[in-house]
Amino acid sequence: MLPLLFVLLGACAPSAASETSFSVTDDLFAYPQYQIEHSDDYILFEDALDLLDSIKVASLAHSGSDVRVVREDEAFDDDVAEYAMLTLHNSPYLCSIPRVSRAVANETQPTASEEDKQKELARAADKGRELLSGMQSNQCLFYSTGWWTYSFCYNQEVRQFHALSMGQMGGRTWPPQQDPTTPAFVLGKVDAETKDPATPKQDSQTAVSTELQTKAETSYLVQKLAGGTNCDLTGKDRKVEIEFHCNPQLTDRIGWIKEVSTCSYLMVVYTPRLCSDVAFMPPKDSNAYPIRCSRILHESEVSEWEAEREAEEAAATQLVQQDAETPLFLGNVHVGGMKYFKDGKKLEPGRIVLTPDERAETIMMQKDGKVSSISNAELKKLELEPGDIEKFRKQLEKLAGAKDWKIERTDDINGQVQLRGVVSEDEKKSSREEDTDDPATDIGSDGELEGSEEVFKEDL
């Protein structure tokens, strides 16, 4: 059985086999599994023949490949059970098949009792709810596809709406704002009917029921929200099922959402929070046993073969050096510059900044030639230095010219303070006497400068 398995592996493209994940190239009846690895070294033809001819040789052929299998011999490597010669792309290779203990290979993992399984499921579900509770203090998630935009606020609701265009939002695209002329729909919300009885009662809060489900050896949490906007096609309220999957490479985000049936939806949320519990980690593939193959060369071919390898290594080294000399920038961030994160520092999940209402505080503005500003004491409370504000004001005045402007304080996704300058597109009136009846605009007013352009100062 082993030689036949090896022939099949040699005839097909090399691929990793796994005991836990399915692949169409796997031999489902073969155990143990093997994976062919091509070595960077070579073996002389005479040495290969010594290994093959010193013991009994069996020849097999499959799909035009010539394979010669050598049975186990105590004189050779104890970790190698068999040797074989494989002809691939008209080039001969000597392959070593590792020794596999049949007793170990046929052993089965001890199975846990049903009671232990239920206890572990209950523990994982409780831990998962605890890990997801951190999303409640974060801001809402958004997902746009085609005409519709979806918002998900943890432990609140899922909404579907049409977002305003970039032009309608003054050049901004995030966070999406609902178009007031288009109806919006609630796909599901948290209410008393969906309350989890196992969750302790909280002040003015109801926690949605969260269940643990397992599919294809992957565990995830599921929330089912009902009570959405009434569906005119079914006469029933809209409902949505939300799946929370572990993904250590991402911050909290909506992976996708689809309407599985009329007014019934399925949303998948990827979050690194669940990855803190091993129960929600994706299953790891079992390592396949490596079959290592080395190129068989005659002595006259060695020089040419080594020259080709040296040329390939030199080309690869030159390419790496070129990439290293050319820094990669995304926006104003130097990728690999290690400005924000050094070796050994853990990258924490970022905050979700896609909120329905962006928080920005005006700290200084010029309206109709009059400048208003908050006090230095208030600037200190906002973690701002008056000197920085004054420098930014002078830069903004040069840019604005005779136009009105204002300076706002905002926070970026990393929680760092930014100064944003907004310049009105309307030209300043030539005569200030025309505006004598208009009072000066205070900092605390809601007056917005119509038609504006924005400039940012680097993070403070």
TrEMBL record:
Any one Gene Ontology cellular component term annotated for this protein: endoplasmic reticulum lumen
Region feature Disordered, mapped onto this chain: 418-460
Domain MRH span(s) in chain numbering: 138-277
Membrane topology: Peripheral membrane protein
Annotated Basic and acidic residues bias: 423-433
Signal sequence range: 1-18
PROSITE patterns per UniProt: MRH
Compartments reported by the entry: Endoplasmic reticulum membrane
Role this protein plays: Lectin involved in the quality control of the secretory pathway. As a member of the endoplasmic reticulum-associated degradation lumenal (ERAD-L) surveillance system, targets misfolded endoplasmic reticulum lumenal glycoproteins for degradation.
Family stated for the protein in its record: Belongs to the OS-9 family.
Name of this chain's protein: Endoplasmic reticulum lectin
